[in-house]
C-alpha cells in the first residue's frame, strides 16, 4: 500500500497548479513518515518481545543465535555496571567507617581525659578534707553528685547566665526567663 501511495502521482497533475501539487507532495511525505514511524514501532515491539523470550517461533537458527549473543553482551554489561556501583558503595562505606572510628577514638580520648581530671579533683578534695580536721562532710557530699557519671549531662553548653538574685523578701529571681525566650544579658549557644 505504501508503494502504491508513493508511486501514485496527484490526480490530473497537469491540471493542478504548482501550489496544489506541492501541497499534495507534502501530504504524501507526511503519510510516508507516519507509515515509517509505525513500522519502526512495530519492529521495536517485536524486538522487545524477543528479548523477553516471547514470540520466538518465527525466528531461524541464525536469528536465535544473534539474539542470544546480544542478550549475553547485555548481561555482561549490566553485571559490570552493577559491580562498579557496588565497589563505589563499598569504598564510600569504608571511608565513612574510618571517619567514624577516628571520631570514636577522639571521643574516647576526651572521655579518658575527663575521667582523669575528675579523678585528680576527687583525690585533691579527699586530701584537703583529710588535712582539715574540722572539715564537715558537707563538702564531700556536695561533690559526690558531680563525680557520678550516670547523672552527667553530656551536652556542651557555652554561655553566660547571670547568677540568681535574692530580693529583700528572701525570694530568688533570675534575669533569664524560663519560657526559653531570649532575655538581654544572657548568652546561650
TrEMBL record:
This protein's UniProt keywords: Coiled coil
InterPro entries in the record: TF_Kbox
Annotated ranges, domain K-box: 27-117
Coiled-coil residue windows: 64-124
Domain of life: Eukaryota
Gene Ontology cellular-component terms listed: nucleus
Gene Ontology molecular function, alphabetical: DNA-binding transcription factor activity
Keyword Metal-binding: no
Tagged with keyword Coiled coil: yes
Protein known as: K-box domain-containing protein
Taxonomic source organism: Prunus persica
Amino acid at each position: 500500500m505504501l508503494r502504491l501511495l508513493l508511486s501514485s502521482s496527484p490526480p490530473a497533475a497537469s491540471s493542478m497548479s504548482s501550489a496544489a501539487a506541492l501541497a499534495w507532495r507534502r501530504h504524501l511525505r507526511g503519510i510516508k513518515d507516519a507509515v515509517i514511524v509505525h513500522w519502526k514501532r512495530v519492529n521495536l515491539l517485536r524486538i522487545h518481545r524477543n528479548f523477553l523470550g516471547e514470540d520466538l517461533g518465527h525466528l531461524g537458527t541464525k536469528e536465535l543465535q544473534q539474539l542470544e549473543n546480544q542478550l549475553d553482551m547485555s548481561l555482561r554489561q549490566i553485571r559490570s555496571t552493577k559491580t562498579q556501583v557496588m565497589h563505589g558503595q563499598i569504598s564510600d562505606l569504608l571511608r565513612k567507617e574510618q571517619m567514624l572510628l577516628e571520631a570514636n577514638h577522639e571521643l574516647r580520648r576526651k572521655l579518658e581525659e575527663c575521667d582523669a581530671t575528675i579523678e585528680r579533683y576527687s583525690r585533691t578534695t579527699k586530701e584537703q578534707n583529710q588535712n582539715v580536721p574540722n572539715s564537715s562532710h558537707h563538702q564531700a557530699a556536695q561533690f559526690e553528685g558531680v563525680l557520678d557519671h550516670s547523672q552527667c549531662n553530656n551536652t556542651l553548653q557555652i554561655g553566660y547566665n547571670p547568677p540568681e538574685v535574692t530580693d529583700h523578701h528572701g525570694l530568688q529571681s533570675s534575669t533569664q526567663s524560663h519560657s526559653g525566650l531570649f532575655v538581654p544579658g544572657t548568652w546561650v549557644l
